[in-house]
Design brief:
Number of helices: 1
Low-confidence stretches: 13-23, 107-119, 335-344
Number of domains: 2
CATH class of the largest domain: Mainly Beta
Distance between the termini: 33 Å
Shape: elongated
Structural class: mainly beta
Length: about 350
């Protein structure tokens, strides 16, 4: 089950001393990351004074967050070495605890780290666990039409989990998310963001992908990361190819096969004279590549400066999408995926 990977993947980012709170206790700032924040309801911290005994359990809910990074100020005994792990909580389920991290004692004035800032870079996410996708998803007809239709996409069980699905054959159908983010900004106004998640296709003759910076329903204009049936690989492309669209293969492309889940990250941002995009795709059960596989620029005067996200399907067989996530990019520009600059 691909969801199990998201649910259990908790990793420590750093652990450090903030300040002593009293003669008998001190406060330690525990920081960690989770690959899909919207897939869990919260976290538990478990700690103890020996590696095999972590009897103290603190329900921290959803603490301070910046993107996929969290931090919590934990009261622990003074002058004792502490062992800590983090577990993710989803409904009545609790994941296995992460690898233990040792917090050594330190003097009161020694400051090793700072908590993650209170600003939350996450703006929107959807994992379809409630069995629906809501009215904000608008389906459109074949050939990348602007005409709205119904029944093209559904939410159903795939590999034991709930996902957004469609079942071909079809020819260039889309579903566009036209809702708002956590701050109430309409999707049509989203800009400078990273779009990530997972997708799957069942037959070699099928194409599957995602769209971003879409101007639907005003005009057919978007960027797309898609798997092409003829080449068997993903590529980053515009709705229409012309000389103003330039792409460089910055890493080794992954030849994708039916039946496997593939994770993706695609980032887009306007940079005054051009819109810059970068993307990567990898098997969900493998490690994420350190670099991007495509770097593209759009220099059209009327290029996309903002827009909604969506999914795209063509060809034969079933396709599915899950764990969709949108996050603001760092103010400084396109940065490493999953590592917001706001986090120390």
């Amino acid at each position: 089950m691909h969801r199990a990977r998201w649910f259990t993947a908790v990793a420590f980012a750093l652990v450090g001393l903030l300040a002593a709170s009293s003669a008998s206790a001190r406060i330690e700032v525990v920081s960690w990351s989770h690959v899909m924040p919207c897939s869990v309801d919260g976290f538990e911290l478990r700690y103890g004074t020996s590696p095999g005994t972590l009897d103290n359990i603190v329900d921290v809910g959803r603490p301070r967050q910046a993107g996929a990074h969290f931090s919590y100020e934990l009261d622990v005994p003074e002058n004792q070495e502490i062992y800590v792990c983090v577990a993710a909580v989803l409904g009545q389920l609790t994941s296995a605890c992460s690898n233990q991290v040792t917090i050594e004692t330190a003097s009161e004035d020694e400051q090793l780290s700072q908590p993650a800032p209170e600003e939350d870079q996450r703006t929107w996410c959807e994992d379809f666990t409630d069995g629906s996708r809501g009215p904000a998803w608008i389906d459109t007809a074949a050939d990348s039409s602007l005409q709205g239709t119904s029944g093209m996409f559904d939410v159903a069980a795939v590999d034991g989990d709930i996902a957004l699905t469609t079942d071909g054959p079809d020819n260039g159908i889309h579903s566009h998310f036209l809702g708002a983010d956590l701050q109430g900004t309409p999707a049509t106004q989203w800009s400078a963001y990273e779009y990530s998640g997972e997708m799957q296709f069942s037959e070699a003759g099928g194409g599957v992908g995602v769209t971003l910076y879409s101007r639907y329903n005003v005009e057919r204009s978007y960027y797309r990361l898609g798997r092409q049936p003829l080449t068997g690989t993903f590529r980053l492309e515009r709705d229409q190819i012309d000389p103003s669209w330039k792409c460089v293969a910055a890493g080794q492309a992954v030849y994708v096969v039916p039946g496997e889940w593939y994770a993706f990250r695609v980032q887009a941002q306007d940079e005054a004279t051009q819109t810059t995009l970068q993307a990567k795709v990898w098997r969900s059960d493998e490690s994420e590549p350190s670099g991007f596989q495509w770097l593209c620029t759009d220099i059209r005067p009327n290029r996309q400066l903002a827009g909604a996200i969506g999914v795209w399907s063509t060809g034969s067989g079933a396709k599915a999408w899950d764990s969709l996530h949108v996050a603001n990019l760092p103010v400084a520009g396109l940065g490493a995926p999953g590592k917001p600059e706001l986090v120390p």
